[in-house]
């Protein structure tokens, strides 16, 4: 992928995976002083309200998180929903951390050459995405079921009530969703259901302020609520989902009824490390996000960032160099640990990361960065390539007892594959696999295989303070930038003592190949000459915009925030 393409993808994400422009300001004011024990943050105030309703009704943080995810299916269809998958990380007040894997799976009949064309070369990205090949068996409903079975307090059906109301009664179309519908009409309007729901005619999306009613989705949600999560998978509905994927044109997905009926989410060991005496825990494989967050942080621990100051170019030089090390390991080692040997313990081992940190020169950019050799590293592994995502959302919920739930949900690209079933969009998650299964005869860890889960960058994270008390639940949307956003804000809180909103507002800076991309119109963009002097010769600015959501414990109680970087849409008033 060229730098022009990645910048276009990053800029597009500003319109795809973000919050409702209408109500961001009043919602933040509401979240600043919670009126009840516990709090919720998400990318849309109407979904946040669904989670808050569960807390008011005596529900747990898990109940609130699930209700929020289901509501996002209705109001944020461009970014997430029950047609996709997700990861849940739950941190209890006593320090126990549990993680749940609801990643989509490839059909049993998938093969390593899944995304290769007749000429043996990878398919063009758009051709791969808008096809049945890209659709994995959705995992969000089953991972919600698993988490609810263990930690829910309210009845399963109760969690669906706010979303059903939103779908049946409708919600006001905001500028951000309208812009996404316009910019991604080839996906959102791919099927008759999408066109009928969101478009005034076959080409133009409904106007800002129009009420969006989704009766078919309301009926689907009612059936899942009444019949339980198994109805989604092991019934005529699940069979119809498989048939929809298998009938996709021009490239069918080969998904079977058995693929859907046998899907199972999993409880996985959380990956944990420490950063300046804080315990940091996240999602392990098939996500690379938890490992990357810990690596980025731990490799910076020997540097006194606080003394340098948040606006020091040297801090962000170090941050970029730590990213480069972490992502070199990510590309080589991470994948679905049910299929490949991922040396998780070695990758986050303090001794290994201390050695990797020594490769960071505080005065100059390192010319070449390669993956390391962590303990128990497998041999003969190659790096791969995949299609970048732009359709993800993150939410957090904190219960009255301080239990933290961090939940990242995705359909991969904007409006996923474009195929709609049951009133919701189906993911294109399988394009997160490497399109090339091998390089020079050496297999890629993230190659396609039947029943396998593609590698993810999602990084739902929980943080405990040095006394072992819950401190922070955090995560982000934004494809491969997710661990970077998450680590950046954790540094803001821990190193610079920032209020949560200030930590989330820190400018974005990311390494991409030989280039460094800096968020334009920020104080960090003014530091480009200093970054050049440190050896980062190719520094470019971008208007990309991401969303990090978090909740943090303060002396006044828990507060929730989401990223409020300004864009023109935020200035547009509206009723909701």
From TrEMBL:
Source organism superkingdom: Bacteria
Q: Which residues form the signal peptide?
A: 1-23
Q: Which PROSITE patterns match?
A: PROKAR_LIPOPROTEIN
User: Per the record, what are the reactions this protein catalyses?
Assistant: glutathione + H2O = L-cysteinylglycine + L-glutamate; an S-substituted glutathione + H2O = an S-substituted L-cysteinylglycine + L-glutamate; an N-terminal (5-L-glutamyl)-[peptide] + an alpha-amino acid = 5-L-glutamyl amino acid + an N-terminal L-alpha-aminoacyl-[peptide]
In this chain, L-glutamate is annotated as bound at 103, 432, 456-457, 479
List the keywords (alphabetical): Acyltransferase, Glutathione biosynthesis, Hydrolase, Signal, Transferase, Zymogen
* E.C. no: 2.3.2.2, 3.4.19.13
Which PANTHER family does the record cross-reference, listed alphabetically?
Answer: GLUTATHIONE HYDROLASE, GLUTATHIONE HYDROLASE PROENZYME
Task: Describe, as the record does, how this protein assembles with itself and its partners.
Answer: This enzyme consists of two polypeptide chains, which are synthesized in precursor form from a single polypeptide.
State the family it belongs to: Belongs to the gamma-glutamyltransferase family.
Protein name, UniProt field: Glutathione hydrolase proenzyme
Q: What is the native source organism of this protein?
A: Erythrobacter litoralis (strain HTCC2594)
Provide the taxonomic classification: Bacteria, Pseudomonadati, Pseudomonadota, Alphaproteobacteria, Sphingomonadales
